[in-house]
Amino acid sequence: MKRLALDRGMERDFEIASAATSREEIGNPVYPPARRKLAEHGISCSGKTAVQITAADYDRYDYIILMDSNNRRNLRRIIPDDPDGKVRMLTDFTDRPRDVADPWYTGDFERTWRDISEGCSALMEHILTEK
């Protein structure tokens, strides 16, 4: 998503962050196979470690984007209400709403890359046409 904003010269118009909905990986660096997949696309994860989303993030961000149904269930414990309709699944913006393939279980990082790329492109188009 950061690359899409940068490619459009809009990097200053966005604050893009990633946060976990569970605590298992808090403080850990990006999972090595994920780091390798991102590096294939010129994306560095250097210095990144997992942090958990907080209730205060709801007021801070315009969108809270989830990858899958498990994240939605976990998020409801942290942010139980969504009065502003900010919480959405990433692929809701595509023609094929679904869970993003979780490479932790599938081992298929390429499929996950495609799902996320498709979702981010569709989200960016949604944001740009919404303005």
Topology, element by element:
Blueprint: H1 2-7, H2 32-40, H3 56-60, E1 64-66, H4 69-78, E2 87-89, H5 103-106, H6 109-130
Parallel strand pairs: 1-2
Strand tally: 2
| CATH homologous superfamily designation | Response regulator
Largest β-sheet summary: 2 strands, parallel
* Cα separation of the termini: 17 Å
Number of domains: 1
Unreliable runs, pLDDT <50, ≥5 residues? none
Shape annotation:
globular
Helix tally?
Answer: 6
In CATH's first tier, which class applies?
Alpha Beta
DSSP strand (E) fraction?
A: under 5%
SSE succession = HHHEHEHH
Please give a structural write-up.
By secondary structure, the chain is mostly helical. The protein has one domain (2-126): Response regulator (Rossmann fold, 3-Layer(aba) Sandwich). 43% of the residues lie in helices and 5% in strands. The chain contains 6 helices and 2 strands; from the N terminus they run H-H-H-E-H-E-H-H. The mean pLDDT is 95.
Task: Using brief descriptors, characterize the structure shown.
mainly alpha; globular; 131 residues; two-stranded parallel sheet; Rossmann fold; single chain
Please sum up the structure shown:
By secondary structure, this protein is mainly α. The chain has a single domain, classed as Response regulator (Rossmann fold).
